[in-house]
Design brief:
Length: 549
């Protein structure tokens, strides 16, 4: 008998089983390897998907980038316009820089492109470069480049105290500036042909005393402000004033004081502002040169007429606005005597800065006769009148009536005064003066001279210090409003227009659409009769605009 093991080994079934068992082991090992490889692939694919998603998220434009450039342009313009200058560099204990356009351009590429493509955001510069410890030429170059060819607005100021010791005749311009400031000033001069506005603020004439006189042209200059110590036009500064005198487009001059006739092109100036005037002769000579003048503002008049010597008459045919400020009305009378202004339509006289009170006289009356003669001589059509008086002066009804008779076309009047007893003008008197006498029938064409004072007045602003608006004043004010609500005028176009009466007591204004509601909430001292009259004005008459405080 054969041995069992030999039979099993010789059997084909046994051989097949053995070989099959070996093949399965190898296959399983291969499958396991393939599974591991597939797992690696899956992990790699997952990593790639995450990477793609991350890169897509990182590169996806933010919602803010979808805002149109036109919107950013508007926002940037509003932001930069909230600053007087889009670049402001100030020297002090620590330097101070305000540069909104530069800050905006550093946020992102879109903002940078928007900011750099708007030259108006880079075109106004204010620098205090005296004794600066920093070289700001690179910063200035950035603004010059980004402003392209746009005209520049420039202020050169000296805000650092203690530089008076550096303004003596032996001090050079470079010593006055300091090295960094001097280099910055030289760079600014290279752009002189682009200066449209130039403001010299609180600087010494030594600023302009350059040893090598540069050739500059202020071909674009329109506005020149010099609030600085420039009384001495010395040889070293002549180059600058010669260029100012030849500026072909200069029309607006704002000066600390009157300057020589050969340094300012007065003959072409249309707006002249002077901080202080104390010489009538110099003023006469200057104004005789100002043949194109449309606006004259003098902040501090300190003039006096020489006894037995009348100033020559000065005719300013184009002057439309005259604003005078003085510590005493007597200092203004020489100007009223001097000028003839046939085109004047806006006059402002402010004497609140001083006092005409004297120990032996006390409160004084201000006679408006010189001003009245000016208006009568000029035969102008005055439309706006502003009078502001100190506590030491008062007006009378007769004096103001005489003035208003010379202004039949007056449309707006502002008057500020202090209440006094007796014949002095007060709010009640002023209202009664302005009450009109309308024609018997509304269809009758009104004659201006028969209606009363200033029939075209549509705005009245009263500032009576310490006055109490009681029921009596309210009734008089309503009488005036009602008398004016019945007047109609026919303008040049043939349209009928109702005059609008505006009364404003000390800045608190109540529109007629809300005035009745306001008075119902605060009925004292306004009673039901007052409300009914206001309702009638609102319902049947032309608009009445009243205000009370």
């Amino acid at each position: 008998m054969m041995h069992r093991s030999a039979i099993r080994s010789a059997s084909p079934v046994g051989t097949h089983a053995t070989s099959h068992y070996g093949y399965s082991t190898e296959a399983e090992a291969g499958v396991e390897g393939e599974k591991r490889e597939l797992k690696d692939y899956d992990e790699g694919i997952a990593r790639l998907r995450v990477r793609v998603m991350t890169e897509s998220t990182e590169n996806r434009p933010s919602p803010i980038s979808e805002v149109p450039d036109e919107i950013w342009d508007h926002i940037f313009t509003e932001l930069c316009s909230s600053h007087d200058y889009t670049l402001s560099y100030t020297v002090g204990k620590e330097k101070h820089v305000e540069s909104p356009a530069l800050v905006l351009s550093q946020v992102c590429s879109q903002w940078r492109n928007v900011a750099r493509s708007r030259p108006q955001l880079w075109s106004s510069i204010s620098v205090d470069i005296f004794q600066s410890s920093h070289d700001i030429r690179f910063l200035l170059e950035v603004y010059f480049t980004n402003s392209k060819d746009r005209p520049l607005k420039l202020r050169i100021a000296d805000f650092l105290p203690g530089l008076d010791d550096l303004s003596g005749p032996a001090v050079t311009c470079e010593e006055y500036f300091g090295r960094n400031g001097f280099m910055a000033f030289q760079l600014l001069l290279q752009q002189a042909s682009r200066w449209q506005e130039l403001f010299l603020n609180d600087v010494h004439w030594r600023l302009l005393a350059l040893p090598d006189h540069p050739e500059v042209s202020f071909s674009t200059l329109q506005h020149f402000t010099c609030l600085a110590d420039m009384d001495a036009v010395v040889d070293d500064t002549r180059w600058f004033w010669n260029s100012i005198a030849k500026a072909p487009n200069l029309v607006d001059a704002d000066l600390n004081s009157l300057m020589d006739l050969d340094v300012i092109p007065y003959s072409q100036v249309t707006s002249l502002s002077i901080d202080a005037v104390d010489d009538l002769g110099d003023l006469c000579q200057t104004l005789q040169m100002c043949t194109m003048l449309e606006q004259l503002l003098i902040d501090d008049c300190d003039l006096a007429v020489i006894e037995n010597e009348l100033p020559p008459e000065v005719v300013l045919p184009n002057l439309q606005r005259l604003c005078l400020n003085a510590a005493s009305v007597s200092k203004l009378e020489p100007i009223f005597t001097l000028l003839t202004t046939p085109s004047l339509n806006d006059l402002e006289v402010d004497c609140r800065s001083g006092s005409d009170r004297t120990p032996d006289v006390g409160v004084m009356e201000w006679s408006l006769s010189p001003l009245e003669r000016l208006l009568k001589r000029s035969e102008c059509s005055l439309e706006t009148l502003t009078i502001m008086l100190p506590a030491s002066l008062y007006l009378t009804r007769q004096s103001l009536e005489g003035l208003l008779k010379e202004t039949p076309n007056l449309q707006s009047m502002f008057i500020s005064f202090h209440p006094l007893q007796g014949s002095a003008l007060n709010t009640s008197t002023l209202f009664s003066m302005l009450e009109l006498s309308p024609p018997e029938h509304s269809w009758d064409p009104p004659q201006l001279e028969s209606l009363g004072l200033v029939p075209r007045l549509d705005a009245l602003f009263i500032h009576e210090q310490g006055a109490v608006i009681d029921s009596k004043i309210t009734d008089i004010a309503l009488d005036m409003l009602e008398s004016r609500s019945k007047i109609r005028f026919i303008d040049k176009s043939g349209l009928v227009s109702s005059k609008v009466a505006i009364v404003d007591f000390r800045d608190k204004v109540i529109d007629r659409r809300n005035v009745c509601e306001y008075l119902e909430l605060k009925p004292v001292p306004f009673g039901k009769a007052v409300l009914n009259r206001l309702y009638a004005l609102q319902r049947y008459g032309p608009t009445a605009f009243a205000a009370y405080s």
